[in-house]
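BACKBONE STRUCTURE TOKENS:
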Amino acid sequence: MKRIFELTTSDIENLNKNKLKDIISKSEGRTVMSETIISYTPYIREVSNLELAASFGADMITLNTFNFEKPFIFGIDGGANLLSSIDNLANKIGEQIRDNLTNKDYIKNIKKLVGRMIGVNLEPVPEGSTYERGYRLNIENLNKVKEYGFDYIVITGNPNTGVTEKTICDGIKLAKEVLGDSTLIIAGKMHGAGSGNIYDEKSIKSFIDCGADVILIPAPGTVPGYDLDLAKKIITLVHDNNALAMTTIGTSQEGSSKSIIEQIALNSKMAGADIQHIGDCGTFGIALPENIMALSVTIRGIRHTYRRMAQSILR
């Protein structure tokens, strides 16, 4: 079995969640996930943030602010040239959204372009929320997750969305019911998100009991009081209950110095993380690209990092 940083585009085309979970587990804490805000124009003109993340060593790429009712990814679908007239740009975006809504291979084609596993954030907001429906975790969007062929979903809460432990658990149950064995379910909180406790072991256990395959927690040093010992304690609980653990940098420290990224990455590996996530707010909807590479080099060295970077052009 190949490790995750050895997979080529053809390898990832037919992975189900059980196979992916097994590959991540056997990669011994050397899996890198990069999150990108796809509603921003790209960091580098004419190169999407997804392609940039892949070329700097990411294995898994998570789309934040992907709108299932208005699917459009800046840099992939266009919109990078803001020098054109606003009216012309708006018309082109509208046309592309209509095409994407009916194109069942939309995400599958992006996976072939980028050569990485692609996932999406879904927000389990409470009833009565004014949050845009295209971002929410609901039956309609979960069916589209399956139809488009996303490899995984991330159930979590952006700040001030009203997401709680209960809404996350309810979201996990619904996702498991709709997605079955097709899609890996990642769930948890990478920061307070304006509400709720991120330190409670009972909450972590409840996410596993509800059916999450991977539990996400803050990386040591990213939120107050979340140190190596606490992270290790919670990750041990996760592993004892047959789930995987992902540490996350979701506090804009993805825009910190390289030495900070290296420290966070090494502590996360010592804590036992199976996946290390780096967030989307370094600059222009992506971590500083050199910090994606720094995280990769820290947890798996130059040899595997350079291979991963070169595999951006392998099929």
User: Anything to note?
Assistant: The chain is about 40% helix and 15% strand. The chain has a mean pLDDT of 91. The longest strand covers residues 31-37. The beta strands are 31-37, 60-64, 117-122, 152-155, 184-188, 214-218, 244-249, 275-278.
